[in-house]
Amino acid sequence: MADLHEAYGDPCREGTFVQVRIFGHEIPFVRAGANALLRAAMDAYDVDYGVHRIESYNCRQTTGGGSQSAHSWAAAVDVNPEQNPFSSKAILITDMPREFREAFKRHGLGWGGDWHSVKDAMHFSMDRGEQGKAITQKYDPDLQAAADQKWKGRRPTTFTPKRSGTAAPPWRHEHPGNIQNRHNNCPTARQWQAQMKARGWDIGVDSDYGDGSERVCRAFQREKRLAIDGVVGPNTWRMAWEAPIA
Fold this sequence. Notes:
- There is one protein chain.
- The protein is α+β, with helices and mostly antiparallel strands.
- It has two domains: about 1-150, Muramoyl-pentapeptide Carboxypeptidase, domain 2; about 160-245, PGBD-like superfamily/PGBD (Muramoyl-pentapeptide Carboxypeptidase, domain 1, Orthogonal Bundle), CATH 1.10.101.
- The protein contains seven helices and seven strands, in the order H-E-E-H-E-E-E-H-E-E-H-H-H-H.
- The protein has helices at about 1-10, 35-45, 100-105, 140-150, 185-200, 210-225, 235-240, and strands spanning about 15-20, 25-30, 55, 75-80, 85, 110, 120-125.
- The strands form two sheets. Strands 3, 4, 5, 6 and 7 form a five-stranded antiparallel sheet that branches. Strands 1-2 form a two-stranded antiparallel ribbon.
- It is globular, with a radius of gyration of 19 Å.
- It starts with a helix and ends with a helix.
């Protein structure tokens, strides 16, 4: 994310953001890149694709850990995470029409579905390492007015899950998943793995909470707006059962 740091300064500085209204939602975005996002949204309005959820600022590391996310600069957006999930095995799952994706790419936001080692189909980013461009322009309020005018008369879409959640079984203890502290031969780890597999995640059910389980955990935490730490704590455990299934 060196280019974002060079273009926008240190991450997690809310004073560098501006509120933008797109797809019927109001979100913060880095001020110097807001014009590009507004132009992308206006192009995307011409595509028949409903956006029920769009998110930007989140001062956190990447889903895989190890570096600061472009969301820390509010220089990325995630669109409809439930239908466009992250895959550490580079399996592309998306319901976005090509024309919708191209609307963002034309204006400097790289699409995570084009990545090779992993797929992040919800994600559009201005980071060069994520195939975007760290655009710096003086914010133009007239573009926001134009976007408002083009959106006028529309409403945000709603999301109807395929299946509602159920009550979670009792949570017993944390399941850390890292090389230094593996969690092996654990019945509750197996119970969580089986539930995640039932939800459609690509995960082994082997009672061992290792690197593969941690990757699934991190992606699930991101999708459900939980703290991304790769640990199955009480909230992550509960959401594995109670969150509706897309």
